[in-house]
Amino acid sequence: MALPEKQPVTKKFIDPVAVKKSISQRLVVNNVTKVIFLVGLFFGLVVLGILLFGVIRDGASWLSLEFLQNAPSRRAERAGIYPALMGSIFLMLLIIPMIFIIGVGAAIYLEEYAKKSRMTSFIEVNISNLAGVPSIVFGLLGLTFFVRNMGFGSTLIAGALTLALMSLPVVIVSSQEAIRAVPQAMRHASLALGASKWQTTFKVVLPASLPGVITGIILAVSRAIGETAPLIMVGAAIFIARAPEGIFSEFTALPIQIYNWTSRPQADFQGLAAAGIIILMIILLTMNSLAIWIRNRFSKRY
């Protein structure tokens, strides 16, 4: 039996000139792209710097201890931000436990206990979609459900529940990603040592995912504190002279007070609004810095 003849091996010729030209073109594209990105970054920083400079220039002279302690007034020299500041603080204190318990609990269930099915995928997709819904929609929901149907009225608890509802999708998604990032080997090692499913989740998975979970919670609360539309929809007071005394008290918040001052034509109230913006930015920067510190601390630990 005759053996098949070997086919001749054809060597592909590589043109070094063409290769050098292709590399040069890629380098040019990379350099042009880098310049475009740097220009975009520089433009954003310049615009942000101009805005910050204008706000600090107009509002720095109004910052004082009396400004933090006084209630709003029709006279700019006597006006303060105390009720709005306390309203925002109370909102944060109410929102954080709600979104931590419900949001992290939902994320743990979806990642650790729920079976992967079409229904689970459908729920996760809709949660992700809710994270991009405009805040005014949550304000309408809060007005219909919490203010009217549940009879809470325009109170602090109605505003907190509305903002918590708006923050939950972000917390659930970020917590899922943090829990999903925990290596499976840690779960298997815990189960191999005789720990139950709940003990593994509570003592191994949750502590290891805590940096991402807490970061998502703080960033979600930072977004909620800066929102104006949902609070207007649930009936937050535009002008109120006292801080809330309980969860069923009338309230206002920093964004509402800033909106009130900016709507007035007098130049002094524009300065008060700029001072309120500075206070709000300090709170937001503090919370974001806290999120970064917590993430770095726990990342080194786990």
Number of strands: 0
Summed over residues and divided by their number, the pLDDT gives a mean of 84
Give the fraction of residues assigned to helices: over 70%
Structural class call reads mainly alpha
Distance between the termini: 69 Å
Strand content: under 5%
Main sheet makeup:
none
Shape, principal axes of CA atoms? globular
Write down the secondary-structure element order: HHHHHHHHHHH
Radius of gyration: 27 Å
Number of helices: 11
Low-confidence stretches: none
Please render the helix and strand layout as text.
Layout: H1 16-59, H2 65-69, H3 82-113, H4 118-130, H5 135-149, H6 156-180, H7 184-192, H8 197-225, H9 229-233, H10 254-262, H11 267-301
Helix pairs in contact: 1-11, 3-6, 3-8, 3-10, 4-6, 5-6, 6-8, 7-8, 8-11, 10-11
Describe the protein in words.
With 302 residues, this protein is mostly helical. The chain has eleven helices and no strands. It has helices spanning 16-59, 65-69, 82-113, 118-130, 135-149, 156-180, 184-192, 197-225, 229-233, 254-262, 267-301. Helix 4 packs across helix 6 (156-180) and helix 10 packs antiparallel against helix 11 (267-301). The longest helix has 44 residues, at 16-59. The chain is globular.
Condensed summary:
This protein is mostly helical and about 300 residues long. It has helices spanning about 15-60, 65-70, 80-115, 120-130, 135-150, 155-180, 185-190, 195-225, 230-235, 255-260, 265-300.
Keywords:
302 residues; mainly alpha; 11 helices; 73% helix; 0% strand; globular
